[in-house]
Amino acid sequence: MRVRRHLPVIVVALTLPFLMGQACPFLQPPPPSQTELTPEEQTAIEAALQATAALSQAAGITQLPVNPNIDPEEEPPVTTEGTCPVIATEASAAAEGRSRNVTINFGAAACPAAPFPGLSCSGSATGTLNRFAATLSLTFNNLSCASQTLNGQVQAAYEFAPAGANLNGTFNLTWTSDGQDIAITGQGGLLGFDRATNATTLGVFNASVSASDAAYTVGFTNVVLAYQNNPDLLPSSGVITITGPTIRQLTIRFNENSPTTGEAEVRIAGGPFFTVNLLAL
Hints:
single chain, alpha+beta, 48% strand
């Protein structure tokens, strides 16, 4: 009889762990915080910032031969201007004078780059320019500024802006920074370079960005990056959006203090904006 009185207790004691063990797989993990970035999301932001710098440098180099003061009808067969870089053009006989071969040469040793105050650059870009059609094509050949190297191609139509040039075309670039290669491809959209402020504006531009084994789609809306007194090359305005298979959708909003403080506002998957120090990622 004594055994019978204790039997329900024994049954409960043996059954409860079993039931709890069966229930555990059905417990849902807590949702990720909307104000805390995962390591994968931090990596995505870093890749997007590197892509911003790469596109800005490509736009700055590409606009150099675009000179609104040159009349293509009166342009001499060969022209050379500048010192860092040296910009040389030569009429192409194959194109009946409407196309010119272009070389933008910073040299083997780094020199203070005219379009990028505060940076020293080496390497070159070569391609063709058609002032009649307002088109140009450049290939970047190990064009390195501040230990960040640009390779790849850009093909663009251009138009004159009040202080510089706007570009609309196809970018296929490889950007090497801190030993990591980042591939950037994008077509269409408006990129501008202001020669008075040495600032690049990524107006509306979508690009595929890949770094290591990760790939993202990065959208730029009025992102302004000025080289003047901005060694970290952080934008001073505009919005970047990032999507990818291993991250939640990220929105980064910059302000005029971002280049100085390193801080920008980030939103995760439509959640609230919160401040992130981008230099501390």
